[in-house]
Each structure stands twice: as structure tokens, then as C-alpha cells.
Specification:
- This protein has about 400 residues and is α/β, with parallel strands linked by helices.
- The protein is built from 6 helices and 17 strands.
- The strands form 4 sheets. Strands 13-14-12-15-16-17 form a 6-stranded mixed sheet, sandwiched between helices.
- The chain is rod-shaped and about 105 Å long.
């Protein structure tokens, strides 16, 4: 099970209340105030860990609640501070603070006096609207289904605030800070008020709703249509063993592979599920996982040059670039390498000639990942592209 996005509720521990106590001991008359301070509440702390690769732990535990501080005690004894809750998340996790829902006072009306609902508006694909219901308001974007009969509402997460981006192993971020413990009555004694009979209550800890979003950190991102051979290529150049089968959407979640060179240089390669036309409107699986290639330094556009699924490779290339631009225009500014796969097929050579005529001035590398043809040159080219990108930074 792969989880790369999850909503959680986090609450830091409340501080313990201060104690109201007066010192009483044999042969000590009027010992004075001796109430101890309350302990501070524990904080919710996120820690990046490179040994994790998804957010499945938070999927089964979406409520992150730290320990509360203990109240103060008599004889000047302070309460124990609450233990911090350290939550480990994979490197590349973004933390978004979700806006709190505003609950307004409403007067209940009789059903007979209720105003009739306005007629539904006719919205075109791509338009945004605010849907109001008993659960509050949410922004949605209209996307028409394949049949064109009924529209699908795609939720737009607007108003979220980015509070942290955990990219390095061991990096910590205080998600919710624990409340401060209250002072005991011994802290309020003065020359004019020698026996105060009050103390401070503990402060409440921070709390809020958050969304964790994982964006895999990799140097190379493999992009292509379903059944183009991305998983086969990943398995051929690394020790990753993704599922390979002769049907589309064999890959259901991102796969990570490590490419090792003889001089011990290592490159991380991310294979996302295949894109199809309309992926930017959440069609297929590509939209859900396109976020994972945002951090990649170089994109590899893998094309099925044999046209196994009766698609023209030049049309696939144009549609892939269009989907990347519609999702995020910055993706087209990344260095990219166009790779023609399945060159072992008879029709592939003829399709490659047509591709070069229709898409001129675009270098194409020919490989056959299933038979390890052209892979040494492919490894060298992606390394040079990554090193050139690192040097430009």
C-alpha cells in the first residue's frame, strides 16, 4: 500500500496548572506558599527519515496528540513536562496547514418557510465554483466525464499554507508547540501579599489540521504513456524490480530505482504511472503522481516507437508535453531527454524516421530496454545531463 498524501490532526500537550499550597510542617508556623509549577506540554515534532518511502504510518494514525504536562504539587514540587511526540516522515514531505472551518450562528427555519433552492448553474469544463453544503464550503473545478453526460467535481485545495518542506535526513520541524505550564502560588508571594491563594492555569498547546504531501526526491524522472516500457527500463538499469506486464497501468504507484556507476556515483530514478490525455484534469493515474517529478533535475520522455497500442509516437510526444505544461509550466523548463524504446520491433525504425521529420531539432536516443540495447549510452547521457544541471545551479 502506497500513501503519498494524508490529512492529519495534530495537537500539542496542554501545560499543567500551577498548584496552590501552603507549607505545613511541625514546628514551622506559617510556612508560606509552596505550590509548584505545572509541567510544559509536549510538542508534536516531525523528523525526516530516509528509510521511509511513504506516509502509511500516518494513514493508520491520523491523530497526532502529544502528552500533557503534569500539574504542580505541594512542597514546591514542579510537575513533569509532557513527552514530545516525534513523528518520522519520509524525506521530501511537504506540510500544509489547512484552514479551519468557520462555524457561523444559524437560526433553524421551518421547512415550510425555507426558501426554495436556486436552479443549478450550467458550468463548462475547467470552470471553478463554490459548493455550499451542511459541511461547509469548498472550492471545486468542473471536469466533464468521458461520456460527456455528467460533470465530475474536482476539489481544489485553495487556502492551504505551506509551513515546512522536509528534504534532509534528520531534519526536524515543530508542527505544534506544547503549552507552557502554569506558575504555582509561591511565585506570586510579595511583602504585601505573603499568602497568595491563586495560581496560573496551564496554557493550551497548539493544534490544527494539516496535509502531508510526499514528493519523492530523485534526479531522474521517467515520463511516458502506459505500456511504453518505463518499468522495463527501470529494472534494466537498476536493482528495482517493478511489476512488468503487457497491459497498460501495470505500475499503480511510483517506483524508485538506484542507478550505480563504476566510480560509485549513484543516481535516483523515479518511475511514475503512465500519463494519458487529460491527466491534468485527473484523468487516469498520472495526475495523482505528477507531483513526484517536480523535484527531478532531468526528465526522460520515453516513447513507444513501435506503436504497440496503435498510437503515433509523435502524437504521444506532443500530448505528453502538453499535459506537463497544463499541470505545471515549470516542468517544461527542466532539461529533458527523449528516448525511443522498443527499437527491436520491425516498424520502429520507420516510425523513428517519421518522428524526426515531424519533430525536427529534437535529439532522440534509440534503445531496446528489454534486450539491454543502447543502455550504456543512455546511462552516460543522463549522468551528463544531471551533472550539467548541478553545475548550472
Amino acid at each position: 500500500m502506497f500513501v503519498d498524501e494524508i490529512k492529519v490532526f495534530a495537537q500539542a500537550g496542554h501545560g499543567g496548572k500551577g498548584c496552590v499550597a501552603l507549607h505545613r510542617e511541625a514546628y514551622v508556623a506559617k510556612g508560606g506558599p509552596s505550590g509548584g509549577n505545572g509541567g510544559g506540554g509536549g510538542s508534536v515534532i516531525l523528523e525526516a527519515d530516509h528509510d521511509l518511502n511513504n506516509l502509511i504510518n500516518q494513514f493508520f494514525k491520523p491523530r497526532l496528540i502529544a502528552q500533557e504536562g503534569e500539574p504542580g504539587m505541594g512542597k514546591g514540587m514542579d510537575g513533569h513536562a509532557g513527552r514530545d511526540l516525534i513523528v518520522k516522515v519520509p524525506c521530501g514531505t511537504l506540510v500544509w496547514r489547512l484552514p479551519r472551518k468557520k462555524v457561523s450562528d444559524s437560526v433553524e427555519e421551518d421547512e415550510s418557510e425555507a426558501s426554495p433552492e436556486p436552479p443549478p448553474m450550467k458550468l463548462d469544463a475547467g470552470e471553478r465554483a463554490i459548493l455550499r453544503s451542511s459541511g461547509g464550503e469548498r472550492a471545486v473545478e468542473i471536469a466533464w466525464s468521458d461520456e460527456g453526460e455528467s460533470p465530475d467535481a474536482v476539489e481544489i485545495l485553495e487556502g492551504d499554507e505551506l509551513v515546512a518542506d522536509l528534504t534532509k535526513n534528520g531534519q526536524q520541524f515543530v508542527l505544534c508547540k506544547g503549552g507552557r505550564g502554569g506558575l504555582g502560588n509561591r511565585n506570586f508571594a510579595t511583602s504585601r501579599r505573603q499568602t497568595p491563594r491563586f495560581a496560573q492555569p496551564g496554557e493550551e498547546g497548539d493544534e490544527g489540521d494539516f496535509r502531508f504531501e510526499l514528493r519523492i526526491i530523485a534526479e531522474i524522472g521517467l515520463v511516458g504513456y502506459p505500456n511504453a516500457g518505463k518499468s522495463t527500463l527501470l529494472g534494466a538499469i537498476s536493482r528495482a524490480r517493478p511489476k512488468v506486464a503487457p497491459y497498460p497501468f501495470t505500475t499503480l504507484h511510483p517506483q524508485i530505482g538506484i542507478l550505480e556507476y563504476e566510480d560509485h556515483r549513484r543516481l535516483t530514478i523515479c518511475d511514475v504511472p503512465g500519463l494519458i490525455e487529460g491527466a491534468h484534469l485527473n484523468v487516469g493515474l498520472g495526475h495523482k503522481f505528477l507531483r513526484h517529478i517536480k523535484r527531478c533535475s532531468v526528465l526522460v520522455i520515453l516513447l513507444d516507437m513501435a506503436g504497440t497500442d496503435n498510437r503515433a509516437p509523435w502524437d504521444d510526444y506532443k500530448k505528453l508535453l502538453s499535459e506537463l505544461e497544463l499541470y505545471d509550466p515549470e516542468l517544461l523548463n527542466k532539461p529533458r531527454l527523449v528516448v525511443a524504446n522498443k527499437m527491436d520491433e520491425d516498424v520502429a525504425a520507420e516510425n523513428l524516421k517519421k518522428f524526426k521529420r515531424r519533430i525536427p531539432k529534437t535529439p532522440v536516443l534509440s534503445i531496446a530496454a528489454a534486450f539491454d540495447e543502447g543502455l550504456p549510452k543512455f546511462k552516460q547521457m543522463i549522468r551528463e545531463a544531471v551533472e550539467a544541471e548541478e553545475a548550472s545551479r
